[in-house]
Amino acid sequence: MKKFFKWLGLSFGMILSLAVLAGLWFWNAPLPNFDWALNRAFAKSVMESPETLTQLHVLEQAGITFHQDDLDDESQAAGDESLAKMKEIGVELRGFDRDELPYQQQLSYDMVDWLLTRMEDGVDKWRYYNYPLNQMFGVQSNFPSFMESAHAITSVGDAEDYNTRLSKLGVKFTQIMEGLRIREEKGILPPTFVVDKVLDEMVNFVGVPASENILQTSFKTKLEEAGISEDDQAELMAENTRQIENSVYPAYQIFIDYYNEIRPKTTTDDGVWKLPNGDEFYAFMLQMMTTSEMSPGEIHELGLSEVARIQGEMREILAAEGYDTSRPFGELMHEISEEERFMYPDTDEGREQILADYKTILDEISAGLDDWFNIRPKATLEVERVPEFKEKSSAGAYYNQPAMDGSRPGIFYANLYDIKATPKLGMRTLAYHEGIPGHHFQVALAMEQKELPLFRKMGPFIAYVEGWALYSERVAWEAGFQSDPFSNLGRLQAELFRGVRLVVDTGIHHSRWTREQAIDYMLVNTGLAESDVVAEIERYIVMPGQACAYKVGMIEIMKLRTLAEKTLGDDFDVREFHDVILKNGAMPLAILNRVVNDWLAEKQAV
Fold first, then answer.
1. Of 216, 326, 536, 587, which sits with the fewest C-beta atoms within 10 Å of its C-beta?
2. Residue 183 above 70 pLDDT?
3. What distances in angstroms separate CA 530 from CA 19, 73, 422, 534, 576, one per listed residue?
């Protein structure tokens, strides 16, 4: 099961406690409580992933570090075993009588059943329908990011484990090569541009001396911050250099050689329609990502209608500000975003100012949401720059969840590669989406709900997660934090961007659009910076269906809020509505609909 979620490019985000690890991992007797059985199933899964355990950083707090010098088993045999265990989990969990469970456990049951049903139908069938090396979240960039951000060093032993992990990279990459060869045999090869971008990234990664590689620069910083003696530092740094030069770089060369080998076999056909049974696979991915039954055609039409609606609202603002709205929309918006008053200087100082301004924006809204939220996450939020080694091909921004033990805050990463991609008019909306009250509120609050089982603390339901983040952009506007017409224009441009995604994602993977067609459509209809547009379109190509989740999820949450407002009238309190959405964790949209309707029925019965 863990392998499947990694395949989707998602994170389990399992929050484990020592009680769970000690009590559930070793206890295989039948459990009368569904949530405990669910916790045990996922605890077992996480225990098989040394990298996930490191990211959670729970065991280390008790001095347990058996996992810290190891990497995940990526072999085909391990994948087979995961599939078999997934089926065992399904049998065990479905052994409970759903109707006899308390309400919250019924919700847990229904979420698991929803997920297991679709995974059983598709996980084995579509197991190889992905590109493990890609420009967005491939292992070639994930590994150094993981070592830099997750592997904590507080002692010499931690540092030795870090170097041991480097020594095992060749095994991990060789295991991944097994799957790449199988994909090649099945005719599942990435588009040419993916090969070119990943090759460029890997060649640059191994083309610098070890002293300039992030695996050493971050290692050196960690040693210094841990207060390790100079003699020990010198020895550890020497070993780190040896491992980078003799283990890491040769491991990357395995992939470099392979991608050079397959490049002549790749094509510029970018959609998954080109794969065997590609249309069926795309329909499956849309269902998994949107948690809806909408067809590619229905999603495409929804996108077209949303694009027309939002552009109409934007033209009204532009006309009121004196702009000629008869001009091509994308051209006009692009020019506005590049007006000097909306731009930062293309300098180191300009980039530092962007990060400082993001922090100010988040501090401001954090202090002004009492009328909208009853609850706040305990975890703090920081703003950092996307690591430079991967910013060229990364998205404009992303969020990393906090550690359960408080050792790591939530982090909003901003991509500062192209300064023109960060016009001031869009910064507020981006900060609200990734940070407050968007991803940070939703993710951190779910993690902090003590009564929820592990699975629901970070459920892998993207339409809910991204739908909330997009909805939160509107909440910020309603709360008065985008009262300036140009900030509101930036909000609408961001919403338009998500509407366009519905069109281009289905265009690429269902209607057989080329990469260039999709880029042109997004440029013409949004006015976003070309660097952002190219990175986004290329993201949709390697993550089919994922981009459709945002707007589908937001629309459903807005529908539910409208229903609640009409049903409760003067008794409606938006803070209570947000409690219902956030305190129950992520879930499929159909189940979210039921939860809200159950809450409304309960309110009316009082």
1. 326
2. yes
3. 50, 39, 12, 6, 41
